[in-house]
Design a protein that fits this description.
Blueprint lengths: L1 H14 L3 E5 L2 H6 L3 E5 L13 E3 L29 E4 L7 E8 L8 E10 L4 E2 L16 E2 L21 E10 L12 H9 L2 E11 L2
Length: 212
């Protein structure tokens, strides 16, 4: 029965992906303001969900991706390493975390997933640089690395089309009320979000704006 419910959710998610993020761009961060950005039609998480703080130690507010975090194929020649991520403010009852990286401005109808990992232990408050690479010891067991929209497992760096307007890349960390969300590793992130919504206790966001 659970499998049937999950299958229905997957179909719904993959045919009509929608996600709303509250994020800060360069000018908004400078003034301490937040502005909503809507992709498609339906929020991935409630707007009133309690907030956590998310930091990127190697990418201070107002700065952007460097060669380390850029994609290493297609038109880009970066090192394809996920940046270090820190978070705090998880509520009582948190049993695991989910982290994702989403390009709001990708030339698709539903954005583009660059990174996801879940079942990250509740005792974790940060991931080091490179933790998004399969087999990297920086990702604590029993964490699971999901698939990107490139079709690869692990982190896929930023590589917006040259000359396109700068893209907004949203890092999201979600505190969950279960230690294991019990989804297949190769399930599309759009569908993982359907399951994640049922267990979210709090979330934090950090946006990096990047263009070439």
């Amino acid at each position: 029965m659970r499998f049937k419910k999950l299958t229905v959710a997957v179909v719904a998610a993959t045919t009509a992906l929608a996600a709303t993020f509250t994020m800060t761009g360069p000018s908004a961060e400078a003034h301490g303001n937040q502005r909503p950005v809507t992709v498609a039609q339906r929020a991935a998480l409630p707007r009133d969900l309690p907030r956590m703080t998310v930091e990127l130690p190697d990418i201070p507010p107002g700065e952007t991706f460097g060669d380390e975090e850029m994609l290493g194929w297609f038109e880009c020649s970066g090192k394809n390493k996920s940046p270090a991520v820190k978070w705090r403010g998880a509520p009582e009852g948190t049993k695991s975390f989910l982290i994702s990286l989403f390009d709001v401005d990708s030339k698709t109808s539903s954005g583009f997933w660059h990174w996801s990992a879940w079942n990250i232990p509740a005792t974790t408050g940060s991931l080091p640089q490179g933790a998004g690479t399969p087999g990297d010891p920086g990702l604590p067991a029993p964490s699971v690395l999901g698939r990107t929209d490139f079709g690869t497992t692990g982190y896929g760096g930023a590589c917006p089309p040259a000359g396109d307007r700068p893209h907004r890349y949203v890092f999201t960390v979600v505190a969950l009320d279960v230690a294991d969300i019990k989804v297949p590793q190769d399930l599309p992130m759009a569908a993982v979000n359907v399951v994640m919504q049922e267990h979210a206790l709090a979330a934090g966001y950090r946006t990096v704006v990047f263009g070439r």
